[in-house]
Design brief:
57% helix, globular, mainly alpha, 0% strand
Length: 138
């Protein structure tokens, strides 16, 4: 018996370091909510981000990652932050506003102007590539 070492390729490390959500991911999975991860937090994160994790579990944590203000809804400001991170602030304010409005119009099932976890999960079901993109390969 011995320790099994995981060796990360430089491409895998670059992909993580280049992830615009890396700090937010650490915050969501850390017990203290500040990004200070224990070994258990780290293992939980890798479990959720594994290719074998169920869609509902992945959707729940994706929702938490995009809910920047931690109010259990994804509102317009959460969507703006998400979009700006994804595009690295390359869109104009009008483009960001237009995309955010379109997302809310299409995904907000109860028309309250924000996305609940249920709204988000319904949207994810219609996104076939979600499972293949919300993971870390090790």
């Amino acid at each position: 018996m011995g320790n099994k070492q995981t060796i990360f390729t430089s491409q895998q490390l670059d992909a993580y370091q280049d992830n615009p959500f890396r700090q937010r991911i650490a915050e969501v999975f850390s017990e203290d909510g500040e990004g200070n991860m224990t070994l258990d937090d780290f293992l939980d994160m890798f479990s959720v981000l594994s290719e074998m994790a169920p869609r509902d579990l992945k959707a729940y944590y994706a929702f938490k990652i995009y809910d920047f203000n931690n109010d259990d809804f994804i509102c317009k400001s959460d969507l703006e932050k998400t979009l700006n991170k994804l595009t690295r602030n390359e869109l104009t304010e009008d483009e960001v506003r237009m995309v955010c409005e379109k997302v809310i119009d299409e995904a907000d099932l109860d028309n309250d102007g924000r996305l609940s976890l249920e709204d988000f999960q319904h949207m994810i079901v219609r996104a076939p590539d979600f499972l293949s993109t919300f993971h870390i390969r090790i």
